[in-house]
Design a protein that fits this description.
- The protein has about 425 residues and is an alpha+beta fold.
- The protein folds into 3 domains: about 70 residues, no CATH class; about 150 residues, dinb family like domain (Four Helix Bundle (Hemerythrin (Met), subunit A)); about 110 residues, Nonspecific Lipid-transfer Protein, Chain A.
- It has 14 helices and 8 strands.
- The strands form 3 sheets. Strands 6-5-7-8 form a 4-stranded mixed β-sheet. Strands 1-2 form a two-stranded antiparallel sheet. A two-stranded antiparallel ribbon has the order 3-4.
- The longest helix is centred in the C-terminal third of the chain and has 24 residues.
- This is Zf-HC2 domain-containing protein.
Length: about 425
């Protein structure tokens, strides 16, 4: 011990104004901690800035915050942004699903508020603006209700195709349809069926301004396009799967972004045309029918569409029946009209009763496509199962064997059943 010397030393330190404060101790087993040098203070202790959206290679001055971009959505919907602001907003929409949804709502609001001067002139504008956004990060954009059957049926067929082996892509498949008064058929492979679906879907893609899967636009409708694909130098293989699926994804994505106006866009099939909402329903129907053909060829279980989707397919066929009947009448394949009916007036009709899932009641005008079917003017009744009716429309069931129940005018029943089968095609 130092005795009284310690008190003297403390007094001298206090006089100098330097109180004795012990330094930090090193751990007993930390030999490296003998160096007690204090590191220099940090020059900037501010927290790191939050991450920015957009290209990380751009400077902070070139990027806009989320709140600023969100505030620009209204101006963007009105096409009132500068080119730089438009580019920034559209880039942001690919990364931010809530803003993408808000942008679509604002675009629809513009169409509702300006009925006399439609600022959304092109129904595909939003798709072209946001096409690249989906490639970066899928936004939560709802699929239109009328496109749901096509979305569902292409997804179901895709699942089947992913479940079969390499050799099964070359399994023989016989496609069937109805021509005039008799059945027709054509033999191909599973890969050939997918190529057929892809080339006919290309008619819808062309109407939407998308790329043609054939690389060009051959004249004619589904049959001519299919023959052009099958006539290529190399036969179809499993490689056709991904282009077909990519095309179906693109179609769904396009109509989802395009908004309300696109539903009535006309799609030409060569000798007739359908609005886009009916065209995609027609494509869903054919996708299901040919998926069932493939399933039979490879011994794969496959169910019909859901009841609500089946109902829409049946409704489309029922709406097309008066025109098909009139076409057969002009070709001398159906009995003559019994009455002259003014457009929109009720005329003779056939009561089509469809049973089972997707079923319902329809009244088919018999004397004119412009007439309205009416229960009061029904001269015949036909009852069929829903799936059986669809198989008749697909040309897979002979008209003479289709109806489970018949009552009334026999000529009208025959004419309607044959007209239903005539809706089929390659």
């Amino acid at each position: 011990m130092d005795g009284g010397h310690g008190d003297d030393d403390d007094a001298r330190d206090e006089v100098r104004g330097a109180p004795r404060i012990p330094g930090p101790r090193a751990a007993a087993d930390d030999l490296a901690a003998r160096d007690l040098t204090v590191p220099p203070p940090q020059e900037d202790a501010r927290p790191a800035p939050p991450p920015q959206t957009g290209d990380p290679g751009r400077t902070a001055e070139e990027r806009l915050s989320h709140s600023v971009l969100k505030s620009l959505l209204g101006a963007w919907a009105l096409s009132a942004c500068s080119s730089e602001e438009t580019a920034a907003v559209e880039e942001h929409l690919g990364d931010c699903a809530p803003c993408a949804e808000e942008a679509l709502r604002l675009r629809d609001a513009v169409g509702l508020l300006h009925t006399d001067r439609d600022l959304d002139l092109d129904p595909l504008l939003r798709f072209r603006v946001l096409e690249n956004c989906l490639g970066r990060r899928p936004a939560r954009i709802p699929v239109p209700v009328w496109a749901n059957p096509y979305d569902a049926e292409t997804a179901r067929l895709d699942a089947l195709l992913r479940d079969i082996g390499e050799s099964e892509w070359h399994a023989p498949v016989r496609l069937k349809w109805f021509e005039g008064e008799s059945a027709a058929s054509r033999r191909t492979t599973v890969a050939g069926v997918i190529g057929h679906l892809m080339t006919v879907d290309g008619l819808v893609a062309g109407a939407l301004g998308l790329d043609d899967p054939l690389g060009r636009t051959p004249a004619g409708g589904p049959t001519e396009r299919t023959e052009a694909f099958w006539g290529a130098d190399e036969p179809a293989t499993r490689a056709v799967h991904e282009p077909w699926r990519d095309q179906s994804h693109t179609l769904i994505r396009t109509v989802s972004f395009a908004g309300r106006g696109v539903a009535e866009l006309s799609v030409s099939y060569g000798d007739f045309a359908l609005p886009l909402r009916d065209s995609l329903l027609d494509r869903a129907f054919e996708c299901w029918i040919h998926a069932d053909d493939i399933a039979d060829a490879v011994d794969y279980p496959y169910d019909p569409p859901s009841g609500s989707h089946l109902n829409r397919m049946i409704d489309l066929a029922a709406r097309m029946l008066p025109a098909a009947l009139a076409g057969r009448r002009r070709a001398g394949l159906a009995g003559p009209a019994r009455h002259l009916v003014a457009a929109g007036a009720p005329g003779r009709s056939l009561h089509l009763e469809v049973e089972g899932a997707g079923g319902g009641n329809w009244y088919i005008a018999l004397d004119s496509p412009a007439a309205v079917g009416s229960p009061d003017q029904a001269v015949a009744q036909v009852a069929l199962d829903g799936v059986e009716f669809c198989r008749l429309v697909a040309g897979h069931v002979p008209p003479e064997e289709a109806a489970a129940g018949q009552d009334g005018d026999r000529e009208a029943i025959r004419d309607v059943l044959f007209a239903a089968a005539s809706l089929s095609r390659l």
